[in-house]
From TrEMBL:
Name of the protein this chain belongs to: Iron(III) transport system ATP-binding protein
Key words of the record: ATP-binding, Nucleotide-binding, Transport
Cellular component terms per the entry's GO annotation: ATP-binding cassette (ABC) transporter complex
Ranges that cross the membrane: none
Biological classification of the source: Bacteria, Thermotogati, Thermotogota, Thermotogae, Thermotogales
Species this chain originates from: Fervidobacterium gondwanense DSM 13020
GO molecular function: ABC-type transporter activity; ATP binding; ATP hydrolysis activity
Amino acid sequence: MKQVSLKLINVSKVFKDFKGNEVRAVDNVSFDVQPGEFVTLLGPSGCGKTTTLRMIAGFEKPTDGMILINNVNVVEIPPWKRDTAMVFQSYGLFPHMNVAENIAYGLKMRKVPPSDIEKKVKNILKVVGLEGYGDRPPSSLSGGQQQRVALARALVVEPSVLLFDEPLSNLDVLLREQMRIEIKRIQKEVGITAIYVTHDRTEALTLSDKIVLMKGGKIEQIGSPEEIYEKPVSKFAAEFMGKINFFPVEIVERLEDRTVIKLNGQVYTIPSLPTSKSEKYVLGCRPEGLKIASKGPVKGVIKTIVYLGNFSEYYIDTEFGEVMVKVLPPFDTTLSEGKEVHIDIVPEIAKIIQE
Ligand SMILES: Nc1ncnc2c1ncn2[C@@H]1O[C@H](COP(=O)(O)OP(=O)(O)O)[C@@H](O)[C@H]1O
Ligand SMILES: [Mg+2]
């Protein structure tokens, strides 16, 4: 498998909407993808993910900027000469062809000799776990199996870059979890460079070597799943990656690798550093970064307890609004709805976030 790098440099796309107004769908976006890397474009609906992907594939031409595949600017190259392949949300299989014919289609178009086609199809069916399914009609397969065929069809032409646009959105939860792991396994096995578009943070966290978080056509943050989850550069990034509680914070002292802060008068040293110097900050605590205690800087009343088996969520009314605390078993049975409690932070995983 060829391994290529991909680079977007100051890429923008301006559309005209139905009234003739300009929409800046993608706004000065730059990022790098290393050979064999799995990069996810993550963000809310309408933030420009699909447009970015379509520009990489060549279905849209950037208004500005460069897209380099192996250091060659491809913006003038038509999609069929770009050596990319896309997997869509709707599988897009041909219903009148069987599985093997569906997969072979791209190879036929490329005039690959029939004996090679047969070999390649057989091999790729094995890779996606569908050995022996070649002569079945797609309609006889489950959603997950059809998505595997779509993946096989994209992979079999040995593209340099594999592009995914929300490929798992049509599958039910269990299947989605299974396919997530499958996609990652297959991508690593074939070693292909991949760009994956999703609005689902769990998908992004599970699959990606690197996440490009987008908001309103712009890049909000680029980093590994850990970096973005643990060191969000903004409230938006922090909230998009998962439930988080915010508290007003006073910065007492910045040390080299940690910060002394005050929350409601109580002093803590936390290992996180503010991301810039002059801005306003809040303290960000994930539900797992808080504990219910007999003492603590935040007082509240338990409003709702949601039992989820291996943990419980406690929703607590406080002077800073509703706070959610994740509690692991063994559960304290004296904590019931309506009870007054204190909340303390786990300083090791608290974060100072730019407001
Ligand atoms: N062909 C188009 N013409 C006009 N506006 C478009 C077109 N395609 C996308 N847009 C607009 O560009 C923005 C980004 O869209 P899109 O890239 O599809 O976002 P996402 O995939 O993140 O949901 C949206 O505001 C969308 O309405
Ligand atoms: Mg989209």
